[in-house]
Amino acid sequence: MSKNEKSSMISGFYKLPVKKRVEFVKNFADLSNEDEKVFSSCLNIETADRMIENVLGTFELPLGVAVNFVINGKDYIIPMATEESSVVAAASNAAKIARIKGGFKTECSKPLMIGQLQLLDVKDVAGAAQKIIGHKKQLLDLANAQDKVLVDFGGGAKDLEVRILDSPLGKMIVTHLIVDVRDAMGANAVNTMCEALAPMIEELTGGRIRLKILSNLADKRIVKACAVFDKEKMGGESVVDAFLESYTLAAVDPYRAATHNKGIMNGIDAVIIATGNDSRAIESGAHAYAARTGQYTSLTHYYKDKNGDLVGEIEIPMAVGIVGGAGNIHPKAILCKKILGIKTAKELSEIVASLGLAQNFAAVFALSTVGIQKGHMSLHAKNIAVMAGAKGEEIEKVAEQLIKEGEIKLDRAKEILKK
Ligand code: MEV
């Protein structure tokens, strides 16, 4: 039994009307009537106008939830904002298979982000690097003076690293400021600290600072998730073998790895957007990390255990926050965090990584068996049924018939509807 009393496991959730789905989530996450109203509301224009520039309106995306997730022994319903069909259903299905063997287990590093200061015009590069390292304490103190609140919460600048790089402009020194950002994504805190350090580094070295900015290759803020996927539920050991054959291409070939990792990001971006986090930061960090050995490769890894079950693992940088940013302004992001019941950015990281693994498993599983189009076709068939004029229960019936006949065409949908 999972740590929370309420189970996220539900069969046929997709068949329920929207109202019933909302009821289920409301009950699962103890949402209020006010919270419930947020599902069908739009971001108000004044809020939008404060978030970005030149606002004309707002842009809506479907918000769904992936069900069936157990992560570290706790049940989760995961909100996902995405325009792509099949993604939410696929994640829920993968979570259902993973839960047979106990669900997802995760590990997370400290929330350490890296800020970079690029130093140019230094004559004695080795001496300048020594000076920076020699003044580590003063530099860290100055960085920490910029964010007393973060320091009070146990975070703040923790370390300095110095790298010397060859470049077409000659040698340059790049100082990395390592900051524990606690429950924030961290860009603001790190950028402020880097800007504050620039004059001191220039004075110490006689050089000239150019860039001072966070790195999105957050390779000191790593989350790992793993799960065992039951071989019987997958259709037997031959399916596990087929899966491993498919996966192996992603491990050795960047052309396949890009698509394989795109499947991971289908899930990750959807929960990142739903919680008001920065999907571009997560994407760039993920792909840079996937290329860290010099060859772009899969962010997941799979093998067979001694039982013949499939073991899946993901390792990925995860710069997410639960404080600050759009996540604290956008009412739907606030609601989505409530649905997740998260108290820390660490917990959110673990959910995101588990969802990424689930999404990737689902895609490769489908590709290794029925192919990806089957899942896509069912929603496509429903859309065609609606275009043909089907309403209510007719939609499902017309779609089913179209799929059975293997031809999803508008004319045929109209004929079926007439009958
Ligand atoms: C489509 O959005 C994602 C997939 O291409 C991922 C994959 O090929 O693994 C299905």
The overall pLDDT, averaged over residues, is: 95
| Sheet with most strands | 4 strands, antiparallel
- Low-pLDDT windows of residues: none
User: What is the overall silhouette?
Assistant: globular
State the total count of DSSP E strands.
10
What does this structure look like?
- The chain has 17 helices and 10 strands.
- It has helices at 18-28, 33-39, 45-51, 87-100, 125-134, 136-144, 148-152, 187-205, 231-234, 237-252, 254-274, 279-290, 331-340, 345-368, 373-387, 393-405, 410-418; strands at 63-71, 74-81, 105-108, 112-120, 156-165, 172-180, 208-215, 222-229, 300-304, 310-317.
- A 4-stranded antiparallel β-sheet has the order 3-8-10-9. Strands 5-6-4-7 form a 4-stranded antiparallel β-sheet. Strands 1-2 form a two-stranded antiparallel sheet.
- β9 (300-304) and β10 form a beta hairpin.
- The chain starts with 17 loop residues before the first helix and ends with a helix.
- The site of (R)-mevalonate has 10 residues, from α11 and α14.
Quick rundown:
By secondary structure, the protein is α+β, with helices and mostly antiparallel strands.
